[in-house]
Automatic annotation (TrEMBL):
Keywords: Cell membrane, Membrane, NAD, Quinone, Transmembrane, Transmembrane helix, Ubiquinone. It is found in: Cell membrane. This is NADH-quinone oxidoreductase subunit J. It catalyses: a quinone + NADH + 5 H(+)(in) = a quinol + NAD(+) + 4 H(+)(out). GO terms for cellular component: plasma membrane. The chain crosses the membrane at residues 6-23, 28-48, 54-79, 91-112, 140-162. One of its GO terms (molecular function) is NADH dehydrogenase (ubiquinone) activity.
Amino acid sequence: MFEVVAFYLFATLTVIMFLITVFTNNALYALSALAAGMIFISAFFFLLDAEFLGAVQIVVYTGAVVALYAFGMMFFDSLSTVKESIKNPRLVFLLSGLIALLIVVIFVSPIIGQNVQANLPVHPEWGNTQDVGVVLFTKYLIPFEIAAVMLLVAMIGGIILASKKMDTSYSELSENEIDKLKEER
């Protein structure tokens, strides 16, 4: 009974935090809600007796969100307003959703297609950490490396995007000066 109540509590809190992350206009609120959502996700691992994965979730992902928080506050002027000029936002939303669904299907299909319990090398004398390492670096090595490369590309892209606008701060300029800078770019 405890597990069921805890699951529904953490599921509700996780969904609420991620909805705040998506729908808020304030960067501070979005990053704080993202960090809280990552911590709530770690609760699921603790409920499933996967203490190592729960701790990794807190340390790695929540630590990454805090680093993102720091970089977001340092590099971006959160006082300036950003006006997007997407000509067809519904098409962009639909294509993004389809691509995300395709990626999920590609990574989940090997798991669904096989009996997962029969293929996992679970050794009772080892701990949870060793079992995760064996599975991660044998069966899931390719997705693990792809995720590492994607994170590296995202980090480099973020640094490049942030460094392009480092010379001026929009909060210190007047409206006319901001309009002139935008026309130049």
